[in-house]
Amino acid sequence: MTEAAAVAAESLAGSKARAARTVLGQVVLPGEELLLPEQEDVVRRCGDRLLVTKCGRLRHKEPSGGSSGSGGGGVYWVDSQQKRYVPVKGDHVIGIVTAKSGDIFKVDVGGSEPASLSYLAFEGATKRNRPNVQVGDLIYGQFVVANKDMEPEMVCIDSCGRANGMGVIGQDGLLFKVTLGLIRKLLAPNCEILQELGKLYPLEIVFGMNGRIWVKAKTIQQTLILANVLEACEHMTADQRKQIFSRLAES
Amino acid sequence: MAAERKTKLSKNLLRMKFMQRGLDSETKKQLEEEEKKIISEEHWYLDLPELKEKESFIIEEQSFLLCEDLLYGRMSFRGFNPEVEKLMIQMNSKNKAEEVEDETVELDVSDEEMARRYETLVGTIGKKFVKKRDRANYEEDENGDVQPVKTKKMFLKPQD
């Protein structure tokens, strides 16, 4: 058995192990090997080699300059598309409270199991002063513990004890689900879609990294328009988008 | 008699705290060292040569936060939720740290404003020390500037 495995490993090594720099921007498939001694994401280390585990385009970010001259290298990751969310520590997500049991709330975040949220993890909450959270409320929080071995835990408070916008999301509005890639695209630093949306009418949006978006506008019709536009803009080209926005701005 | 008793007492008893209070510090240290030896001899260890850990320059990360500079997830446009708009400026400037300088300039009050405030301040505090009769005069002229008291009412002698 061990001999067969050794042979398989050699044959894999024989097939091209490309330098990551040459593959930037191209589609990579699971099982491909990359050569580069720097930080990685969505790519798993197999002994000394780097194997891709998801299909998508390979992206790279140069390390941002700073005081440290010999800091870590750049970041490589695979930009893939998926709808299913896997809880990751530090991610801000929108969750729905499904149950209240003793001192914790069970929050559905779209992962394999519901996350637990302690009632003390809100700003200004003490044992006597409980937060006003009911079953069915929307919560915006971040993960404190999220790995494949344990139940994910989230909190609505940052390391200093301040809320920073986290906590129960207000009344009304509409929650809908999109792909994870769209969320990342919308939250990119210079997103045109958001700037154009902001010019249309007053609105409030909350993005959760688990693929959930909550929108609220003054009337129900405006809210529905927003939801439809955001869902559709994933598959539209820039021109189509501009057409739609100009039509909306006129009406 | 005392010497005989010491030899009969067991080791465990001697290790107890109430027995050690009377001991010298040296004997205490010796006892501690003996205990440590016993404990360390019981520890298991591998009898292998030292393996060098391979230095790896690669770190695996699960989250996308490092990869892409993502903005803060809560947004509000055109004043729908002023608190969220304040948060947006705060959180997004944490990444850039450019706007902090602008904010400090706005906090300082300009000199003109200070002068204006002091003008009205003199009047309001002046009211405090004015007697009741004269307060009527003050209230008449309350357009912004406070004019001083005009004439004091004197006793008028009746004319026959």
Could you characterize the architecture of this molecule?
The complex is a heterodimer of chains A (251) and B (160). In chain A, the strands form four sheets. Chain A has a five-stranded mixed barrel. A four-stranded mixed β-sheet of chain A has the order 1-3-6-5. Chain A folds into three domains: 18-79, OB fold (Dihydrolipoamide Acetyltransferase, E2P) (Beta Barrel); 91-168, OB fold (Dihydrolipoamide Acetyltransferase, E2P); 174-250, K Homology domain, type 1 (Ribosomal Protein S8, Chain: A, domain 1, 2-Layer Sandwich), CATH 3.30.1370.10. In chain A, 24% of the residues lie in helices and 31% in strands. Chain A is flat, with a radius of gyration of 22 Å. Chain A is α+β, with helices and mostly antiparallel strands. Chain B has a domain at 73-100. Chain B has eight helices and two strands, in the order ααααββαααα.
Keywords:
heterodimer; A: 251 residues; alpha+beta; OB fold (Dihydrolipoamide Acetyltransferase, E2P); Ribosomal Protein S8, Chain: A, domain 1; 3 domains; 6 helices; 24% helix; disordered N terminus; B: 160 residues; mainly alpha; elongated; MPP6 (chain B); M-phase phosphoprotein 6 isoform X1 (chain B)
Helix content of chain B: 40-55%
Coarse shape of chain A: flat
Could you say which overall geometry of chain B the principal axes of the C-alpha atoms support?
elongated
Largest sheet of chain A: 5 strands, mixed, barrel
Uncertain residue ranges of chain A: 1-14, 65-72
The Cα radius of gyration of chain A reads 22 Å
Order of helices and strands of chain A: HEHEEEEEEEEEEEEEEHHEEHH
- Helix vs. strand class of chain A: alpha+beta
Cα-based radius of gyration of chain B, to the nearest Å: 43 Å
Proportion in β-strands of chain A: 25-35%
Content-based structural category of chain B: mainly alpha
H-E order of chain B: HHHHEEHHHH
Mean pLDDT of chain B, as a whole number?
A: 74
Tell me the quaternary state: heterodimer
CATH topology of the largest domain in chain A, what is it called? OB fold (Dihydrolipoamide Acetyltransferase, E2P)
Please report the number of helical segments of chain B: 8
How far apart are the first and last residues' alpha carbons of chain A, in Å? 70 Å
